[in-house]
Design brief:
Chain lengths: 266, 217
């Protein structure tokens, strides 16, 4: 034991101006610190994930509360939350037999059979891989679709933005947008969470008559139903959000699903 | 100097905020409500104590040429661990404090105490010094936080104490109190108050203007 400890003792006995001691102490401190930080991060992740999941659900519920008459409609239909269905994104059909509650996006993204890699030119949302299935939340009454909520996500300025886009029964008019999770700059990009800004969204159209997705955030003075005022000082957050919506409403996202709903209904 | 002195003196006599004027940025940012001020105070006090203890423990083996890097690495690791803990168990609070917990790393108070005291003192006085300075910081934060929340919203800890005009009462909330400059005003008044009560804290001007007649030949 003594022989084992003596190099360590020798190391600490060195002068503090000694080069070996300086580099050794730097490495030692770095190793111990990184071990402590990574241990904490790994051990606490399950708790943090649970918190974030609860937060996402709460934000969607909060969005429902802002929609006029939505709660009454839900009361009439006798449901207290939206129905969750899994959609096959490639052909837009509902996935049968799968339990939507058991859908694990992270696991699907790791699995080459359950997700696809995106080419750089189609990956405008900056997500690299896209799962083949996605949950959607919908409200129907007597077989008629009343509201559909699409979960979307992608790269903002310095964080992943997760949002929920609620679309009315005509499948073009936006009922509301909820930012479910983001970590962009407080005071700038993070202002996409503010209710005053989110209030700009209801009534906007995602696409024109030909079905081309046209929704975008513009710099000041939104003039058409497809334009929403961006956040000043947060150009990249605004561009990111535009791209996220364009991607998820497009061919690789919910495009085929929305097209199928327009033609066949639920 | 007794151990008790390390703990007591930073509370008012040598208060980190009102006398040393350290850690002002966070004092502005997190004092809009009392609850954020309390959480920030606890987080900073814990960081000060832990970093004081750890740095003091290894102070003989910190090479002077890289001492600042080592100190800041230790402080940063402790802060990240605390931030992770808060995200796991105090999620609402960590969202409200957002980046300011992470910014404890850059709080001048932490590195200031490490350089000025911890590097030259044993573990126990260092931890007590950290605790004392943390409590001194907390005291000011709590006063500012309580004043700002009460005058700005008419309540404390989110519980309304007086009825505001908007709800049919008489109290008109001071919107200014919820903005950053008001923390400067309150801090300034506090510094004034402390220095009126303890005139020995008043700094002598380094230079005095000469009286006009002195310049005449």
């Amino acid at each position: 034991m003594a022989e084992l400890l003596s190099p360590i003792r020798n190391f600490f006995a060195r002068s503090n101006d000694d080069l070996v001691k300086i580099i050794g102490m730097a490495v030692l401190v770095a190793l111990v610190s990184s071990a402590a930080v990574s241990t904490a991060a790994v051990m606490l992740r399950p708790y943090q994930e649970a918190n974030r999941a609860a937060e996402r659900q709460a934000r969607i519920d909060q969005m429902l509360d802002t929609l006029p008459g939505m709660r009454d409609l839900m009361m009439e239909s006798g449901v207290d939350t939206l129905e969750t269905r899994l959609v096959n994104l490639d052909d837009g059909s509902f996935a049968s037999g799968a339990d939507p509650a058991g859908f694990d996006l992270e696991a699907a993204l790791q699995d080459p059979d359950a997700s696809i890699a995106l080419e750089a030119d189609t990956d405008i949302a900056g997500i690299k891989r896209r799962a083949n299935q996605s949950p959607v939340y919908l409200l129907q009454k007597d077989g008629d679709l009343k509201l559909i909520v699409l979960p979307v996500y992608g790269a903002g300025y310095q964080s992943t933005i997760r949002a929920a886009l609620a679309i009315e029964a005509d499948l073009t008019t936006i009922a509301a947008l909820a930012i479910v999770e983001q970590g962009d700059t407080p005071g700038f990009g993070a202002r996409i969470e503010e209710p005053e800004w989110l209030a700009l969204w209801p009534g906007k159209k995602i696409a024109d008559e030909t079905g081309t997705v046209r929704i975008e955030l513009v710099r000041g003075g939104a003039s058409t139903p497809y334009e929403v005022d961006g956040i000043s000082g947060a150009t990249r957050t605004s561009t990111g959000l535009t791209n996220i919506l364009r991607f998820w409403l497009g061919d690789k996202g919910f495009g085929p699903f929305l097209a199928r709903l327009r033609q066949e209904g639920l | 100097m007794s151990l008790k002195h390390h703990l007591i003196s930073p509370l008012i006599g040598n208060n980190p905020i009102t006398l040393q004027i350290l850690g002002i940025c966070s004092a502005l940012a997190v004092t809009t409500t009392l609850s954020t001020a309390i959480t920030m105070s606890v987080a900073l006090t814990v960081v000060l104590c832990l970093s004081g203890g750890v740095i003091s423990l290894m102070r003989h083996h910190i090479p002077p040429s890289i001492r600042l890097i080592i100190q800041i690495t230790i402080v940063a690791s402790i802060v990240i661990v605390i931030d992770q803990f808060m995200q796991a168990f105090m999620f609402e609070m960590s969202k409200r404090l957002s980046i300011f917990v992470g910014l404890i790393v850059t709080n001048c108070l932490v590195l200031g105490r490490a350089e000025a005291f911890v590097m030259r003192n044993p573990v126990l006085p260092s931890v007590l010094d950290g605790l004392g300075n943390g409590l001194g910081y907390s005291l000011i934060l709590l006063i500012v936080g309580a004043l700002r929340e009460f005058l700005g919203t008419g309540g404390l800890m989110g519980v309304p104490l007086v009825t505001t005009v908007a709800e049919g009462g008489w109290f008109e909330p001071l919107g200014l109190m919820q903005l950053a400059p008001s923390a400067f005003f309150i801090l300034g008044l506090l510094v004034w108050l402390v220095r009126v009560l303890r005139p020995e804290q008043v700094e002598q001007p380094e230079f005095r203007l000469k009286a006009a007649e002195d310049r005449r030949p």
